C-alpha cells in the first residue's frame, strides 16, 4: 500500500517515512503543500498523512482541492493544531482522522491501519488469498495451508505486492521502487536475496511452488489452475 506524507519539518517527515516503510508500506514524502497536492493528484495513494501548517498551500487547501476534484483517498491530519475547532474543520472538509502532535508512532500506525481497513470496505478485502496462501493485512500475518509463516516487514511488503498482482510478471525495477522505495541498481542483489528468503518461507516443502523466477524479466506469484 502507498502512503503520501506531506510534512514540512524534515526530521518528522523522515521519521514518518522510515517508520511506515519499516512497517511494510511504500511511503513518499512532500515538504510543502503544492508538491503534496501534485503528488496526490498524480500518484495512486491509499492514504495521505497531511500537516496543516505548510509552506505554500496549507493542509486545509490541499484537502479541499483533492475533494473538489472528486478524489476520495483517505486523509489523516497530523498537526500541532489541537483546538476543537481545528479538528471539526478538518473533519468537515473531508478528513478521515485527526491526530495531534506530539504523537506516538504506535498510535499513528494503528490509526493508519484502521483507516485503510475502513477504506477497503471491510474484512473481506483485508485478506489476500492465492491458492492456500493467505495474507492478513490488518494483523500482518501470513499462513499457507493453515500454517503460520513469520516474515520480516520487507518480506511482508514484497509478498503483498506479489499477491496483489498475482499472475503478473513484476520486473526488478518495479519491485525496487514499490518495496524498497529506491531506483533499481543492477549491481545490487538485494532483491534476489530477499526473494530467495521469501521463497524458502513460502514454498519450501510444498508440492506446489507459487513464486517463480521468469528469466530476464522478473518474478511472478502464480497458482496453477488445478490448485
UniProtKB/TrEMBL annotation:
Alphabetized InterPro entries for the sequence: CheY-like_superfamily, CusR-like, OmpR/PhoB-type_DNA-bd, Sig_transdc_resp-reg_C-effctor, Sig_transdc_resp-reg_receiver, WalR-like, WH-like_DNA-bd_sf
Annotated organism of origin: Comamonas denitrificans
NCBIfam families to which the protein is assigned, alphabetical: cztR_silR_copR
Keywords: Cadmium, DNA-binding, Phosphoprotein, Transcription, Transcription regulation, Two-component regulatory system
Name of the molecule in the record: Heavy metal response regulator transcription factor
Positions of the DNA-binding region: 125-223
Any one GO CC term of the record: cytosol
Residue span(s) of domain OmpR/PhoB-type: 125-223
Matching Gene3D superfamilies: 3.40.50.2300, 6.10.250.690, Winged helix-like DNA-binding domain superfamily/Winged helix DNA-binding domain (1.10.10.10)
Domain of life according to the entry: Bacteria
GO molecular function terms listed in the Swiss-Prot or TrEMBL record: phosphorelay response regulator activity; transcription cis-regulatory region binding
Residues carrying 4-aspartylphosphate: 51
Domain Response regulatory: 2-116
Entry's Gene Ontology BP terms: regulation of DNA-templated transcription
Amino acid at each position: 500500500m502507498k502512503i503520501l506524507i506531506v510534512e514540512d519539518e524534515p526530521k518528522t517527515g523522515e521519521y514518518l517515512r522510515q517508520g511506515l516503510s519499516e512497517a511494510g508500506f511504500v511511503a513518499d514524502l512532500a515538504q510543502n503543500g503544492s508538491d503534496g497536492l501534485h503528488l496526490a493528484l498524480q500518484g495512486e495513494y491509499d492514504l495521505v498523512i497531511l500537516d496543516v501548517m505548510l509552506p505554500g498551500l496549507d493542509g486545509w487547501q490541499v484537502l479541499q482541492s483533492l475533494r473538489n476534484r472528486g478524489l476520495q483517498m483517505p486523509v489523516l491530519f497530523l498537526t500541532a493544531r489541537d483546538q476543537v475547532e481545528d479538528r471539526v474543520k478538518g473533519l468537515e472538509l473531508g478528513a478521515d482522522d485527526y491526530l495531534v502532535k506530539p504523537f506516538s508512532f504506535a498510535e499513528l500506525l494503528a490509526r493508519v491501519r484502521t483507516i485503510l481497513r475502513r477504506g477497503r470496505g471491510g474484512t473481506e478485502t483485508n485478506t489476500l488469498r492465492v491458492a492456500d496462501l493467505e495474507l492478513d493485512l490488518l494483523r500482518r500475518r501470513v499462513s499457507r495451508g493453515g500454517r503460520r509463516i513469520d516474515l520480516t516487514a520487507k518480506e511482508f511488503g514484497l509478498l503483498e505486492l506479489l499477491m496483489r498482482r498475482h499472475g503478473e510478471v513484476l520486473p526488478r525495477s518495479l519491485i525496487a521502487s514499490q518495496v524498497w522505495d529506491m531506483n533499481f541498481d543492477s549491481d545490487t542483489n538485494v532483491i534476489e536475496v530477499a526473494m530467495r528468503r521469501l521463497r524458502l518461507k513460502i514454498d519450501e516443502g510444498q508440492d506446489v511452488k507459487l513464486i517463480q523466477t521468469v528469466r530476464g524479466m522478473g518474478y511472478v506469484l502464480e497458482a496453477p489452475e488445478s490448485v
